[in-house]
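Researcher: Last one for today. Full complex below.
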Amino acid sequence: MSLREEVLTRVKALLKDRRVDGVLGLSLFEKEPVPCLFEDPFDVDALVIEPKWLLAKLAMNILKTAPQEYRLGLVCRGCDDRAVTELAKRNQLDRNRLTLLGIPCTAEQARKCLCSTPYPREIVAGERVEGMYPMNDEQAQLFLTGSMEERMKRWARELNRCIKCYGCRNVCPICVCIPCKLEDDLWVKRGHIPADMVSYHLIRAFHLSDTCVSCAGCTDTCPVNIPLMLLQVSMRETLKSQYAYEPGLDPERVSPVLTEQEKGEGTLFQEPAWIDSLRGGS
Amino acid sequence: MNLNFIKTICPYCGTGCGIILQVKGGRAVTTLADRSHPVSRGGLCIKGWTAHEFIHHPDRLTKPLLKKNGKFKELSWDEAIGLAADRLKETVKAHGPDAVASLSSARCTNEENYLFQKLIRAGLGTNNVDHCARLCHGPTAAAMAYALGSGAMTNSIADFSGAECILIIGSNAAETHPIIMGEIYKARDNGAVLVVVDPRRTEVANNADMHLQINSGTDIPLIDAMMKLILDASLENREFIASRTDGFTEMKEYLSQRTLEELSRECGIPLEDIRKVAELYARAREASIVFCMGITQHACGTSNVYAICNLALLCGHVGKPHSGICPLRGQNNVQGACDVGALPNVYPGYQAVADEKNHAKFAQAWGRDLSRKPGLTVTEIFAAAGTTVRTLYTMGENPLLSDPNQGHLMEMIPKLDFFIAQDLFMTETARYADLVLPAACYAEKTGTFTNTERRIQLLRKAVDPPGEAKDDFSILCLLLKAFGLKGDYADPSEVMDEIAALTPIMAGVHFDRLGTHGLQWPVPSDDHPGTRYLHKDTFTRGKGLFVVPKYTPPKEMPDENYPFVLNTGRMFSHYHTGTMTRRSPFLDREVDKPFVEIHPADAARLGIVEGGGVTVTTRRGSIETFARITTRVMEGSLFAPFHFSEAPANALTIEELDPDSKMPELKVCAARLEKG
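Model: Here's the assembly. Have a good evening.
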């Protein structure tokens, strides 16, 4: 049985047995994929699992607007699984109302997203592939290593292209603050492009520093091809090396950014090397 | 839970991005980006991401309205259609068919535009049908059709990323066509050189390798100089010129009449910079020219486009992949509205009305005698309103904000005997109407839009229109019936089949072939896969034609009383007359006030501060707006977006017309700036 067929069988069973009221996944519409909330087992034959399509935020919104008793199934990959965990930690969704149907990504997908954990904690079918170490990526090397001047030049060139579409925020599965800091006049000037490098892009990046689940949604959606996800890589790596913490992997563990602060042990965590670029000096 | 995700097409610019409307309980609640769309591939601009926001706005028109004693009263659809038909028929009877004029819509579907022009041509017997393409790429269509045989963008959006050199002239694509800009940046990342020609230091210019900040309206001197330099350096494509073009001798003769120094002085660009750009463009293996309103909205707009075609022909940069002449169309379906005949001189598929064979073909197909006389253009319609034009019917157009010299329009429109406006909202224009018909927006209908790269794409209905509003297709079917024409189309796909049967470039276009990727015309037969780029091997007209451009400097240059050059256009978070975007909360939050861009030196001299109130005055009128102090404009220049009805930039613009295409010179006029 193919991966798709296995997932399809599971989805049908969940709906038939009324263990969930609906399953969020992808369906084929005129040969092309589109998100779909399956509620009738007879519709499930249209289900597909490719391409990778972030659904965690949609699932959160469905649960928020559905009646309290509504239970949802979600066909998800590693990044969606981690996003669900982070959203649940922040009381954005009730994990008890959500049944996950985990599937692994392919090696190629993992490479494209620089994903170190290209599979959910539990998978219903398929084979896990090894993730990759993001800093091994050529583009990551280019943007995150080298002298401050070089990096500054590279990032300025990229971020100057920003058309302020808010797409990076819109697709991000854990960008859920209300109100959003990026809509606050104090930080982001209205009516101008490009959006300011520090007050838009770095606020967004730092806001997600201990929650980014490395889904690559921001990079994928950016119409002007800014490699936005690379802004998170160093911070993710620091959390991992200093605290053995990865957002979304452990539902019980609170972010060290919060716990270490409470302990009052000075700076939050060891500064990554690139932080010099934020100080404006060398 | 009644939650659906409907794939459809963004209703704003001509890029034609794929959006997915999330529909809950009959309401569009969110817009998602379509990851599998061939053009946008999961990206959208700020307007696309908020395309659901205006759909259920309380201002939507929900009932037909008739003005009596200055006040609008509701009436039934039966009464409204009966009245519209009666008044149109009375006008024809009393004053002849040419006393009716009409504006079709670049915002409506191909099927609706086709039915609209059919109603006007076959039902009323006049060719007085035009639309706002006149005010955007009218010159492009005229010039490219004459020089190359087709007025459309020669290549595809995906083609940009493979070019070695991209020359952007008079387009601020980063704000007006952001998703296309992404493709152009891809080219630059792949090593292409990006050169921008624009009097403003736009976002595109900021991100280019070179920016030539030319004097407004001097594109022809610049391009002529480039051509001279290319010839001087023997960089022209001789083989291409010999085998695929006509008129080169005359072109050379014309170029020899001017000196490089003169041309350089006129456009304000040092000769060395022109030489650099000329050589970059000529030496590139594949090079594209992108242009927009900065080229067309001039009184020599058609000639500006000829100049661009000349340059491409000289270097052989057309008729191959990654290499072409790329006008970026402004509206979601301005390409399609032109394609299906919403123009006064051509039937669907650019078949001239003055041609006897075409006349016979359409007269037979529609079963009516048709007028052989090309009709009036937008600008001519308003000049004749109240005199030879007695009754006006507009569908999805807001000329009071989009057309030049607003004051003149406000005088002329009330002189009409009867004015029918069909729209989503009570627009500035609809307020002047006698009869207002409530129509449906993109999310409430099926049909097709054709994007700037000739891609015919399916729209899918996501929600119902509000109240008693009807989609334009249904309204037109009722009117067609009232005129004894076929009005019982089962759905828009049947209309497309009729278009296909009459339009060679779309002969193979049928709804069941479109899927979610659409088809790029020409699609000459049912098994044709569509066309990625035009003019391969041979031009549509046979050979590409060098056309000597007729340069006219802008009509109104600054003087003592009006010392500034005023330029008008769009900005990133609003769209055209703001009917939709200004009713979208997120876009309104981004920019909720009109503004005019002023150079810091001018501001300092006049004591104007950032955000302060200013008055901009021209010989036509005056607006009160707010200062935005920026080096985006040159000293002595101003830029005002035309989205804001409280400070309508088109109260200021001049209606000086391009003689070939009747395009007004919206990009240059002389203005005065005062504090407060």
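The two ends of chain B are 55 Å apart (CA to CA). Chain B has 24 helices and 28 strands.
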